[in-house]
Amino acid sequence: MTISSKSIANAERPRLFVGGRWSEPSGGTRADVLNPATSEVAGVAAFAAPSDVDAAVAAASASFASGVWSRAAPAERARVLRAAADILEAHLDELAHLMTSEMGVLLSYAQRVHIPNPIRTLRYYADYAEKFEYEEHRHDGTNGSLVSREPVGVVGAVTPWNGPLSNPVMKLAPALASGCSVVLKPAPDTPLSAYALAEALAWAGLPEGVLSVVPGGRDIGELVVTDPRVDKVAFTGSTAVGRRVMALCAERVARVTLELGGKSAAIVLPDADLGQLVPGLLPMSFMLSGQACIAQTRVLVPSAREAEVVEALAAAYSAQRVGDPLDPGTDLGPLINEAQRDRVESYVETGKAEGARVVVGGRRPVFGSTLDNGWFAAPTLLAGVRNSMRVASEEIFGPVVSVITYGSEEEAVAMANDSVYGLSGSVWSADAERALAVARRIRTGMVSVNGHPQAFGSPLGGFKQSGLGRELGPEGFAAYLEPRSIAVGPAA
């Protein structure tokens, strides 16, 4: 395949991608995309109206019924996914700059993680689609059945702004690999990366009708979720909205995957090495300026070690450089918008009112430049926090970390589990076996021992109100398949 030299990282997207074609939005709606670092206009994007959603779902439903993709050979589906991955890779640097301008992610992080991971995910599911066994014969000694795994149908994917390429790909890659058609509703803050993904898939040869992109607000999302032609909904976002999505899906028994909020705890055991803990915990707490559902925002420390842990974290937090996400020396970029910045600041004030002590941060950065118009928050460390405080129990989605003390290991585990969430967490100890034993007791979907990253292909998802189902890995592929059993007669 020849990679086009034409860019897919366009900041001007005046048309919608509906049914595999670029078309005028029926409502004529276009909106500015703002750069969170300066609040200046970073681009323009078309937004969907209800009639556009109807057209998108109709195209997806027709394409699925036609079999142009749902009955295509796994090797053909894999070919398209690999070609799309190649196109994204060829335009990686442009995409990284586009993503930085629309969501404020550090350019270095976009180049290292936010673009390469989706590329890897597309290739992973291309490989998986080819090797997966879609049929098996089962016999009980008397009768025989053919058990097949069929694509679930039309998928409505509703994705957030903090992973404008990675989160759509987490849904589209397994859905497309399994033969589903997809209507993608990206967040209104970050539509440009989603349009770039659609263009890459179109260039790669995805048949018309199989994919549509309909950016918009919650009203557009609800239209996707409630359409009876949508067989499965895959949603990532807040737990509050996730409850609404789940309730709407329940009304018509639609399949649903939910990846929701978190309030993850880092358990620091008495023998933990601060030289390992502090540098390891920093990126786990402050990735995307703390705007990550898996962020480690509760640090549980033994009472006897509170002072030294707080001192070490305070020194590290104070050294974090907040500023221009394009600058390679920046550690934390802006928050996504003004409302999110104000929300983070209000939580810090709430923590102080509850009795927490601000050790570092808590004030809005001042730059003396155009960055003063951006939506920045300083990394903030709170001490004297109780697990019952709002800052310790509610998801803030910003660079705010609470230190909470415990007396015994049993108490630490109980405190980590004393949350409506259960998405991520970590355990820190000089004794890896002890840390693993504690990790097994945490009611959460993902746990890290001493900051080690998860292996690629591991499932992503949570316990309790952190979600339902899993994404990535084999589990993510299975979520887009329906088992079917056909009685084929007596066993041979």
UniProtKB/TrEMBL annotation:
Its Enzyme Commission number?
1.2.1.3
Query: What Gene Ontology molecular-function terms does this entry list?
Result: aldehyde dehydrogenase (NAD+) activity
Keywords, comma-separated and alphabetical? Oxidoreductase
The UniProt entry, under PROSITE patterns, shows: ALDEHYDE_DEHYDR_CYS, ALDEHYDE_DEHYDR_GLU
- Coiled-coil ranges per UniProt: none
- Point out the signal peptide segment: none
Q: Which reaction does it catalyse?
A: an aldehyde + NAD(+) + H2O = a carboxylate + NADH + 2 H(+)
Pfam families for this protein: Aldedh
According to the entry, every stretch annotated as the Aldehyde dehydrogenase domain falls at 22-485
Q: What is this protein called?
A: aldehyde dehydrogenase (NAD(+))
EC main group? oxidoreductase
For this protein, the record's CDD domains field holds: ALDH_AldA-Rv0768
Q: Any idea which residues are catalytic in this one?
A: E259
- Family membership noted in the UniProt record: Belongs to the aldehyde dehydrogenase family.
Cited SUPFAM superfamilies: ALDH-like
